[in-house]
């Protein structure tokens, strides 16, 4: 079957072994054999396909699309409209993460649209000043959903608008708060907390945190609150810049706090995060648990110093459902951002197909049963956060070795 969002219905340190021992007890969630309801039914226009090998059917190996910004920025021809608000880059093209999100959304329209969903792409590179007019226009066009990846100021301006003046918002960028605003993007803090809970189950409760220098203060506060909520305490927080010297210096400056810690948590979308691990290990500590996050790039797994690091990440197998077609269409590998763009459209498309245009409502979006998409199993909370089910793995020998599969349901 092609990529889908399914709505779940409820009728080298010595601690690697310790991770394994704990997974059968306190950190394992109960699972139930529940039937799934496919929101979009068959997501391919032509119908369901039997397996992943069929994903490329109908696409030649040379079916590579032009750069996103050279295409008509209305995706789809008719149906309920979704407004995608992303910034163009310096050259006037969608690039980087914005382009990945746009392309993931475009693929979702092709898979799921069936002339029931279209996407209007709006450039918000001019900043928050363009938000009121852009949202008013979306409301006037009858958009059922806003999807945003933009600067915090832009997305916060959208989220701050009264809910009667705008459609619901899916935010794929930095966390924001607001009524009917949902943070659907890849949440590094959520990944970190899943692993911290496992550490707590191992009786490792004193956490030293290392974060990138550009982490916002609001995100740092959210992280600290989540760690305390998981039953752990923070002995200190240190920031590092994106170079080895800075990472090593951060560890040296945190020497006093590290003496109190039994766990080290390192955030960062960079291989430099492993320099922190190596520097801590170089102090001679063998009783510390190391936790990374889903944001660590695959190259980090190949750094020997990272061996023994626990990481929780979303179900990567689900992404394989669209990875081949994405690669063939855009001549680059599927990314987490593209997967999030796909799922944002998929959720809305499924609700429209099963419940009509009015189905994209707060009640349906925050259903306790959640959704299964190419980013795995997740559900949206009324406070705007996203709760995901993660698989657990430990870095060993250049790869992330599985310890526990993600639960089948909430």
UniProtKB/TrEMBL annotation:
InterPro entries: Peripla_BP_I. It comes from the Bacteria. This is Amino acid/amide ABC transporter substrate-binding protein (HAAT family). It comes from Mycoplana dimorpha.
